[in-house]
Amino acid sequence: MKTVLQEFIEANNFGITGGSEYQWRCYGDRARYLDCDSEGEFSVTCIFDSTDQTVYEMQAWDYINDREYRWIHPDYKEAHDAEAVSKDIKPRESLDDRNYIDLELEEDMFEKIQGIRSGEEYDSRVKVPLVLEDDKLFELMKLAHEKDITLNQLVEDVLRVAVEKYSVHQTNTDNPIDFPVTKKKKKGK
After folding, report:
1. How far apart are CA 27 and CA 36, in angstroms?
2. Cβ proximity of 40 and 22 under 8 Å
3. Residue 63 to residues 25, 41, 74: CA-CA distances in angstroms?
């Protein structure tokens, strides 16, 4: 079974262009980084443990599409954010008052790395893990069928409404999130 570090190196076609000791202490004393970049197109970084090869963080800078993605191992995110704050840096900040697009899943990061490196179009959306009990999943599948949309579209609609509602009512955490109604297009008169 491949380690995440091996997958990172392979995703970059073994094209490592630099690396050194990682300067922040949030990942411990054995943290190092590897870089892979192409001037003006992309830069990809992996921060890992030099002894056990645990990958702490990956970054992918897409200069062509002006996007900066980052994945941080969930077990180390709190330590990373605390060190950022101690250095007077906003935890999501990348450079020039821009923010990283934080990714939840390693696989999402690898898909973005491969798309960025190849120069091909890639899905810029953030994948979110969804764990549901079988009965809830079945209910959602039935509802998606009734609305004549895919389960994925239904989940996207639910998340979009939740984010919009949260953005409007972020100070009122008791406000329930309504289930969205996807409207079918009406036929012209």
Report:
1. 21
2. no
3. 28, 5, 26
Structure tokens at 1: 């079974």
| Polymer length in residues for the chain | 189
Q: Where are the domains of the chain?
A: 4-118, 130-184
State phi, psi for 62 to the nearest 5 degrees: -100, 95
pTM of the model: 0.72
Interatomic CA distance for residues 119 and 177, integer angstroms: 39
**Residue 76 amino acid letter:** Y
pLDDT digits (tens, 9 = 90+) for 131-150: 888 888 888 889 889 989 99
In this structure, of 11-15, 48-52, 102-106, 114-118, the range with the lowest mean pLDDT score is: 11-15
* 57: β partners: 47, 72
